[in-house]
Amino acid sequence: MSDARPLRIGIIAGEESGDLIGADTVAALKAATGRDVELVGVGGRHLEAQGLRSLFPAGDIALMGFSAVLRDAPRLMRRIGEAARAIAAAKPDCLLTIDNPDFTLRVGRKVRAAAPGIPIVHYVCPSVWAWRPGRAAAMKPHVDHILCILPFEPAELERLGGPPGTFVGHRLTSDAGVRAAAAAQAAPRDRSDDRTKTLLLLPGSRRGEVSRLLGPFGETVSILRERGHRLKLVLPTVPHVADLVASSVAGWSDGPEIVTDAHAKWRAFGEADAALIASGTVSLELALAGVPLISCYKLDVFARMAQQFITVWSALLPNLIADKPVAPEYYNYMVRPGTLARTLEQLFADTEMRAWQKAGFAEVSRRMTTAQPSGEIAAGVILKTAGMRR
After folding, report:
1. How far apart are CA 26 and CA 375, in angstroms?
2. What are the residues whose beta carbons fall under 8 Å from the beta carbon of 387, sequence distance 6 or more?
3. For 85-120, what is each residue's pLDDT tens digit?
């Protein structure tokens, strides 16, 4: 293999978080090898900035909930076949599938069947430790290595008979925006009760999440104002749901500032007194930045039926990483605006609850820290798995 030719990497990333992870990894591959990287597959704006021409819009596979998957099953199956055929035909040095296992691992399985010689690495371990543990062993025939973002996952994969895994940490631990927000959070500030409090509202990056949560979030804000709080509301979101967010808050009496720019988002994280969020990756962003939070989720009907199969004790990443209940979680009928408002009041002030979260988030940061940035570790594993020289 000539080192002069570009590396060719197949890549599948459907969601914003996966797109960011992929872009970081591609940048690290370029830096580690000094070679150009040709990309073929599916991704969003961050991977497109690294040179990807996505086979179809990444939003087509960013679905959440059993009902969404069932409704769009025929189209998803077509997209799976389309992506697999294109990647197998391109004969990449390696296929990197990222998160979203219901779609990406199906692509990987078809690629393995069509072109067995293509190494396959999956980034973000499916939550086999939480439910459906049999998925670990089922991945082994068509996944050569798993890049894990949680420190306990490699041992869980080994225990369950899955592919080998490497803890790479998370790109957020070395993100400049996170670090700037954490420094701002650590600085002394006014905590008097009559001050204007900055409240972050983060209703998720999927349309279903936004639709189910922005109503209760708006009611929570109204209750806080009725109880005498002056609020500055900031709602960071992503472009593909910005229109839905804007229409959903249009009727609020004093609506939030909606931001899609990364710099504005991290500035808001640094200024925030607390955050009201949809459960997801954003909880880790906030924990690493040191922003106290409340996590919420309203599951669709099919996901509620599947709850009986979930064995993990918490769905919130900071809680799982710290191995203790650091931040509160409210689900389904427990997403009650009166409860959310009163809990947020405890996070606005210098209370034991706020101090407990801050200390817990410091432990999360310690456990997530790696010797190298996650993208560099991931790039090294990909090169080794694919038998390529640095």
Report:
1. 8
2. 119
3. 999 999 999 999 999 898 899 999 999 999 999 999
